[in-house]
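Request: When convenient, would you put together a sequence paired with its structure tokens?
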Amino acid sequence: MTELHVPAGSIVGMGFSLAVSWGLPLLLLTLIRRKQKADILPFFLGCGSFFLFAMLLEQLMHSLVLLKMGPVSQALRDNLWLYALYGGLAAGLFEETGRYLTMRFLMKGKWTRENALMYGAGHGGMEAVLILGMASVNNLIYSVMINSGSLVSSLSENMDSQQVLESLAPLGELPSWQFFLGGGERVLAIALHLSLSLFVWQAVKNRDKWFYYPLAIVLHMAVNMAAVLAANLGKLVLAEAVTLAGTLVIGYAAWKWCWSSENRETKEQYR
């Protein structure tokens, strides 16, 4: 039987990613609530919006487009550029539309920049928990069981222990830094959602800035597309560098065009 051991550095990386994916959203919830005097409700609306539009509706479309054999799905599988464009556009369209509709109808009367940030923390936080948080919990549990030798003994008699170990082999084979990378990527993703929430908030609040909504879709698509292209070329660090650059540029634009353009009245009613 092949021996498998998970390095301590990898386990620390899993713990870091776990702390980021679960702790950062809660930290932002606390800070935005206390420092910016934002309402709590937008945080949970952001969580629900991501789950509905990204995890349910978007995934439903992917199952119809990608899983059904046909010329469209084949073209997407055969062309990395088309696949990245499709994935980026789908993420931008569904998530930013969900952001817009939630702010427009469920946050009416709460259209402040502080509440927009709170929404972004919930939206990005739910994504972090579902995409990385749950996986980090599983990885940590399996890693501890592997290193303690209790994994094989916990398997039922009808399970092939060798096959199970082979499926978990990446936990011991991947370089430790990759497990830290997931947590860093989530920090950038949450920051991006905070910025995009400010763009969509402006589109909702000011009719003459309606174009900020399609702009948010395009910006979201561009960052996702570039990251997918880099990651599929085997350049994980490049993918994160692209995400960092995009997040910084979009963050600066959101601060300049959205946050700083408003006065400091945090509870002003709009429309």
